[in-house]
Amino acid sequence: MVAIKDLLVPLSTLSALLSTSLAAPATEAPATCTNPVLRKEWSAATAAERSSYLKAVLCLATKPSRIGLPTTLYDDFSYIHNQLNLHIHGVAQFLPWHRYFIHVYEAALKDCGYTGVAMYWDWAKASAAPASDPVWSLTAGFGGNGNTSTPNVPMSRCIDGPLKTLRPTYYGETVRSHCVLRDFVAAIPQADPPLQEMIGWQYSQEVIDGILSSNPTFFTFHSALEGGPHGVVHAGIAGWSNGDMGPLTSPNDPIFFLHHTMVDRVWWQWQQGNPGARTNDFSGNEFGDVPGTLDTVMLMNSLAPNRKVGDFMSTKTGDLCYRY
């Protein structure tokens, strides 16, 4: 396989790009919004809304890269997510950075004609039988599990359905054009106790309620959410053959954004538990063990402007203006 760095723009160009991103000033926090829109769970959307969303996802793969790559806007999201890995995972800004990332993706969908809102998959509600949820519809959803007829053939777990023609370019650290890959973790009924499909018991509503109630500070809350349900859902979808939700290029799978919008919803619910204290509660270390603050600059490496953490702590801003 060809390494990404060998096929794409020169390393010196990427270094200059990153240096520019680091130096770019963060913009001021926008004004508070007055009429936040309601983000919808996928199954609560109309057929027309779901169809429009899926068509816009396919449209992203017809748009040129915004960041100077020889690939598409669709690929920009997985590429940036992989490149910024150490800055956005296991660090304080994990939640606000992904909140901003979802916003950038939603804007890109709207540039492709989508007029709805960012939607989420309520995996807590579906945790008893997640593989049967309507989000995986082969006619009006994200295509279900990957092909199971060739279990021992690498990169062959291709999805079916409306998004089956997507061909992501990047897979982890390599350039490898492929179909969207999934390998749902199967149930193990003979285990003691029996194990549910897609590891559903680890992101049930009971688990979420426990995280919400037992973590009064952002520091413990974000760690419990990122290392628990967030990571488990990724693993349950990617499976043993490392489907696209496994590597750091996980935005290859469009379900990534419905998953992370659900993660954002859980954070929003936690904030609503005590808005006065929690809306701007932010702490923990960033990359390099530097303490994070509301003035910490979140990088987007030219996919969108760099912004401060503090700009994305509330969903009721001029940029975001939404609720759940």
From TrEMBL:
Keywords: Copper, Metal-binding, Signal. GO terms for molecular function: metal ion binding; oxidoreductase activity. Gene3D superfamilies: Di-copper center containing domain from catechol oxidase (1.10.1280.10). Residues 253-264 form the Tyrosinase copper-binding domain. Residues 1-23 form the signal peptide. PROSITE patterns: TYROSINASE_2 (PS00498). Pfam families: Tyrosinase (PF00264). SUPFAM superfamilies: Di-copper centre-containing domain. This is Tyrosinase copper-binding domain-containing protein. It comes from Amylocarpus encephaloides.
